[in-house]
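Sample A.
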Amino acid sequence: MRKAYIRGAFGDKMNDRLKKILKWALLLVLVAVLLFFSFRGVDWGEFWSGLKQCRWGWVIAVIAVQWIITWLRGNRWRIMLQPIRTEGSEPITRRETYDAYAICYLSNIAFPRSGEVVRCGLMGETRKTTFQGALGTVVIERTWDLICMLLAGVPLLFFGRFRDFMVEKMFKPAAGSVQIGGFWIALIVIAAIVGVVFLIRAFREPIGRTRAGAAFLKFFRGLGDGIKAAFTMKNKWGFFAYTLIIWIGYWACSLWTLRALPAADALDGLDALFLMVVGSLGWVVPVQGGFGAYHFIVAMTLMPVYGFDKPTGLLFATLSHESQIVQMLLCGVISLVSWTLYRRKLKSNAIQ
């Protein structure tokens, strides 16, 4: 009986390990496939020539702004953690939340979606808050990041090439020769959102009877809870101010990446807003560090919307993505060392 138990326990561990290996292998294959299709048929001579012509001062400025965004995200997270701080513990410091956030990004490069768990675990180590409590704040963060991304896309329905792209490629083929302006596009989008909310509320019981429906309702409730939580936290105006500045920073990064490319001199701030929204979708795909997915989505959008050739589209995607990866690696490694030293201090204080 004991041998059978040992074999069973050992077998379960092996199965879990095998599942993780297979998942990791599939993600790597997906990255490879996306990179292959992104860079297939690229004129590498033209690509490298474009890279040499880049204005690298703008790229360095982008990396600096991305570091500031990480610091701001850490400060915003600190606001959310303060109300759930363990009673009697010392205040949560900016260093703790910044280091945890930087390590979160470093973890995401290696293991998709692992960073949120890692940073919550790090905060749990401080005993100033619980892992579960910290994880709950992630819902608030992600909810408002999603709202900001959607709000950033609203002006694009009224102005610029993005509106023309939507009208020419999406609405006109569906409606024949009907002329659809930005106002009507926005109205249709708002009506669709209101309709979905109404249907979910009206039919939530039958929807919840299926596994997929229950999971969707759970996500929908979490979204609602996250929206309400931001209005009830103590320093809500600080939270909203940080959120606004963070997304202005993302827009600046997109604009300055365009400024780094001589071929994109004709593009303006509205185009940068469009590329920021499109680029956000590239980071949503659950692959290591957005590799492949970001390049594919951004480059394939630049070509039909702006008439860029493939090397130029990939050049923008590469500069934008790799500048973020460089910042994540540098700050993540430094914060990892910083947190290791801090952990030793915590253990030393606990012994005393």
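Sample B.
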Amino acid sequence: MKNPRRHLLKSLGAALFLPALALAQPGAAPVKLAMIEGFSGGNANGGESVFRNLVWAVERVNERGGVKLAQGRRPLQLVRYDSKGQIEEALAALRSAIDDGARIILQGNSSAVAAALIEAINKHNEREPAQRVLFLNYSAVDPILTNEKCSFWHFRFDAHADMRMAALMSVLQADTGVKSAYLLGQDYSFGHAVLREARRQLAAQRPDVRIVGDELHPLMRIKDFAPYATKIKASGADAVITGNFSNDLTLLVKAAREVGFDGKFYTFYGNALGAPAAIGEAGLGRVIAVADWLPNVATPQSEAFYKAFRQRYPRPEDDYVHMRLQLMIEALAQALEKAGATDPIAVAAQLERSAVTFSSQTGTMRASDHQFQQPLVVGVMDRQGTPGVKFDVEGSGYGFRVIKTVPAAQAEMPTTCRMARPA
């Protein structure tokens, strides 16, 4: 018996390529993109925000006729599979996606899930060469995924955690008001990587900063962060460094505000998904976030890009925009067209040397480890309408003013990848 929820989601995915049918080759099968993500569970809002971005990117490709292959034009079709944020569910979704004919897998909102998918895809592609698949990762940022666990079949389009931490540290290095820091993270591979790199980079760049707390907590299971916030305040920390996201960040900053913590937050994801509204006035000048792009990047192309996204998704709560997701889909479309086919090896060969520009943002894929190289920006939270904050976040009245731009060449870091390539 068919799963009605899965049937509904597949029908939704099918609708995403209808505008291209008139331009595509008659009877041309769509190029299926299987998005395996947590659409339920603790990070469901993160999954939905990525989905909106991918829908918009796929629509744009299809509106211009899909991708031009040797046998004619074919539309892209985005199909979503709910992993519930769990590894076993994600692996089951991978099997379903392959059975459904998908050869491009998209995932990102968990490094633990990404690591499991890489391992499963490596094994599958070796056993089933006629059904090989590629894995495009948009936000699983554990550095190991493009180092020790690097794979020919895996491409990461987000800056990894060490790159993001280096960008944050370039700001903290000059922040003389920070004399002590509390490190707090989620107890899984990504959280461990963030705290490990925070310790290393603090020792190298700000050895005068005392680490007054170093703590991990269960992922997406804490409902009351008051005990953690109380410890942070009692430690005398001037700043919290955290890679927390979604509810684990929102609830943390709410609790910190309630206990009266007035230090800074150096974050990976403090710029959206409810965090600015939760922090409120207490975050002004105190919450710092790193990203590949922020809405207040002051270029005409960037502003036009953001306004177009807000026109597509007018609800204030839907405005978490990921520039890298647009670059990822553009890079994929470019690789498909240059390969002239959907064969994963041919597409991978093109994708690993892709260079794309969209709305003044440029990125290139590094072939040695399949780590995307792009500029990074660091922003500080402020009121909408203050200089540098034209756009707010999610209708909160607060936005992020860009205080540091890190060019791609400066953001790049060495890799230990020893990639095994197919014969």
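B remarks: The CA atoms of residues 323 and 361 lie 8 Å apart. Residues 162-291+375-411 form a domain with the Rossmann fold fold (CATH 3.40.50.2300).
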